[in-house]
Design a protein that fits this description.
single chain; about 350 residues; alpha/beta; Rossmann fold; seven-stranded parallel beta sheet; five-stranded parallel beta sheet; 13 helices; 14 strands
Amino acid sequence: MTTTTVVAAGDHFVLPGLFTRELRAAAPGGADLDIREIQLPWPHTPFGRVAEVDEASGTEEEMIEALCGARVCVTQLAPLTERILAACPGLELFCVSRGGPVNADLEAATRHGVAVCYAPGRNAVATAEHTLALILAAARGIGDVHTDLKHGVWRGDYYDYRSCGIEIENSVVGLVGFGAIGSRVARVLAAMGATVLVHDPYVKPEVVEGIAQLVPLGELLRRSRIVSLHARVTDETRGMIGAAEIAAMPPGSVLVNCARGALLDYDAVCDALDSGQLAGAGFDVFPVEPVPAGARLLSTPGVVLTPHIAGGSQEVAHKAARIVAGEVGRFLRGEPLAHCANPDVLRR
C-alpha cells in the first residue's frame, strides 16, 4: 500500500484538526494517509503578501520544510509560490479552502504540474445571514443606540418620528448581484414581505422569477429604500456606486455592503449620511483594511460597521475543510476534480 503524505496547513479559523478529520472521512477505503498538521498564525497575525502571492499566512521557508516529500497540501492561507514549487517537486495537488486561490501562484503551479483547487460557496450562507443582520441594524439605527447605551445614555428621543427606522415588510429592497449570496438574501427578504429588485446583467429573468424582479441599475436605485451590494469587483463594477447613484436613491434610504469595498465610494456615503440622503448604512468591507484610525466612517452617525467578518462562522470552517477534503478524495481515486483553478494541468 502506498502512503500519501498530506500537509494540513490550518490556522486559527480553519483548524488543522478540521482538515485532518475531513481528509480521513473523504479518503477512499484502504488509503494510507500520512497527515502532517501545521498551524499558521492567521487571524492572530494579519495575512499579507508573501513573495508574488496575496493574502497569505506563514512563510516560504515554513512551507518548504513542511512540504518536503508531500504529494498534497490542504490549506486556507498558506502561500504557494515559485520558490516553494521549485523546492517541492513531489507536490501534485494544492487545495485552498477559500472562494478563490489568491494565495497560490497559478501560472507557476501550472508550469510545475500542480493542480490548484478552491472552495466556492463555502461562506455563502454566513455572508447572507450577516448581510441581513446589517440590513436590519442599519434600517433600525441599532449601531448608534447601541453605542449610546454602552456609554450610559438612554436615548428615548429615538422615538422621534424622524429618527425612527423602517420595516422590511412592504419595503422595496434592491440587491446588486444575484449569485450564491444575493440569491439567499433575496429569498429571506421576500419571505419577510419585502418587494425585492435585482440588478445583475448575467442573470436571466426566469432565474429570479417568484423571488424578485430583474431591473436595470437606475430603476433599482430609484425605487429601493434599501440597497445591498453583492457584486464581484471587475473593471465594470469598480466604483459602481458613487455620489450620483446615492443621490438617485429615495431620501432616507439605507445602503449595505458585505461584498467588496472597491464597489463603493465611501466618502460619498459619509456625505449622504451627513446630509440625510442616507438614513443608515452597514458595512463589513472597506477600501482599506483595517480601517484607518482617522477614517470618516468611524465618526459618521448612522453607520453600523463590522471588521470583514461576514464570512466567518464555525460552519464555514467545517464546510471549507470538507470541500477541499472532497477534492483530495477525488484525486486519490483518480476522479475529475470539481473546482480546479488551472485545469490545463489536468489536460496534460
